[in-house]
Amino acid sequence: MRTIQLDEETSRDLDELSSQQQITPEELIKQLVRDRLQQPSKPKTVMQKLQEAERRRGEPRHFLQGRSDLSDRDVRKEIIAQKMQEKYQRIQDQL
Question: Is 76 within the bounds of a domain?
């Protein structure tokens, strides 16, 4: 058994809900907990996953190391072309 202390407003709300449902406050809390456990959880968004990662190990560094203008398509295209050219050159040097 667990004892909890509620503030006055929450206590009034609990009493009101239990009287509407015509059950004891204890039973109402049990129902709410069971209902909450049975609800399927929603898939996490990318932002939620990032926030969890930040809480676990700090900010994801690879998101912060890029250029500030990477949202521009032409900038990304130029960077990708440059990396492809460098990779091609390394392969040619090995041959």
Answer: no
23, burial (CB in 10 Å: exposed 0-12, middle 13-18, buried 19+): middle
- Residue 16 is part of which domain span? 8-38
Q: Determine the residue type at 37.
A: L
Q: Is the predicted pLDDT of residue 80 greater than 90, yes or no?
A: yes
What is the number of alpha carbons within 13 Å of residue 59 lying toward its C-beta? Answer: 5
pTM of the model: 0.41
69 phi/psi in degrees, rounded to 5 = -100, 20
Report helix, strand or coil for 16. Answer: helix
